[in-house]
Amino acid sequence: MKFSSKLSPNSDAAKVVSPFSSTTHFHLRRNRTIAAKDYREHSDLVGREVTVELKNDLAIRGTLHSVDQYLNIKLENTRVVDEDKYPHMRSVRNCFIRGSVVRYVQLPPDGVDIELLHDATRREARGG
Amino acid sequence: MSWASPEDIYLSTSLASYLDKKLLVLLRDGRKLLGTLRSFDQFANAVLEGACERVIVGEIYCDIPLGLYIIRGENVVLIGELYTCTFLLIDFVLIDKDVDKEELPPHMTRVPEAEIRRAQKAEREATDLKGTMRKRMEFLDMD
């Protein structure tokens, strides 16, 4: 089953909940999908630049330092996308973001091996 | 089983590496608290010592002292390490300046609490007015 069939056609960055398991998938721009539960997938992205968009519309770009099972994220060398609107964030270079407030994680386009991820998701869907 | 080495906390997502550092805690209601992290747990409940709230209205700001605070984790959006240039602390020319100042854009000025409260109230009234005006204009169906 293709995940794309589960996406609403007019949103380019929709959060998709897998019909097979409790795993939350993040469908990111340019058709990248990532299983949030399998956060080891993220470990490939440690050290890469990501943009984390929060539920309060704050978008923070920074180098991914670490991620845990709650999707808590630590970023380094952060900068806020709209810095003029959030002057208090200028002095923040490293930060911890609580997973519950994350809306999207925008990954670098070449950050995820889709084939590998699809295989891992199918494996999990089968329950092993 | 392998034991985690003490350095591993710097590789993990725990807040341990932020202990005893001056932090900015952004809350879900938009408030910004500054203080030193003394304790935390897996929910991001946090104990801040010497906490103060930073109120920013336009180009003025004020740090209102609060004291020792325990923050319930569910209200935490982000915990950021405050970046302060260490060279500023050893530079005797700059040490006289307000040390907190370099955390903010240079054009921002610090004002007393009474003044920031006035500005806050004015801003709130302005947004309320905008809201009611928009509501009254709704029948025009502008978009």
TrEMBL record, chain A:
Residues 37-111 form the Sm domain. It holds the Pfam family LSM. SUPFAM superfamilies: Sm-like ribonucleoproteins. GO terms for molecular function: RNA binding. It is found in: Nucleus. SMART domains: Sm (SM00651). Belongs to the snRNP Sm proteins family. Its main location: nucleus. It comes from Solanum commersonii. This is Sm domain-containing protein. Keywords: mRNA processing, mRNA splicing, Nucleus, Ribonucleoprotein, RNA-binding, Spliceosome.
Automatic annotation (TrEMBL), chain B:
The keyword Transcription does not apply. Component of the cytoplasmic LSM1-LSM7 complex which is involved in mRNA degradation by promoting decapping and leading to accurate 5'-3' mRNA decay. LSM1A and LSM1B are essential for the formation of the cytoplasmic LSM1-LSM7 complex which regulates developmental gene expression by the decapping of specific development-related transcripts. Required for P-body formation during heat stress. Component of the heptameric LSM1-LSM7 complex that forms a seven-membered ring structure with a donut shape. CDD domains: LSm1. Its main location: cytoplasm. One of its GO terms (biological process) is cold acclimation. InterPro entries: Lsm1 (IPR034104), LSM_dom_sf (IPR010920), PTHR15588 (IPR044642), Sm (IPR047575), Sm_dom_euk/arc (IPR001163). GO terms for molecular function: mRNA binding. GO terms for cellular component: Lsm1-7-Pat1 complex; P-body; ribonucleoprotein complex. This is U6 snRNA-associated Sm-like protein LSm1. The keyword Cytoplasm applies. Residues 10-85 form the Sm domain. The gene is LSM1. It is found in: Cytoplasm; Cytoplasm, P-body. Belongs to the snRNP Sm proteins family. Gene3D superfamilies: 2.30.30.100. Keywords: Cytoplasm, mRNA processing, Ribonucleoprotein, RNA-binding.
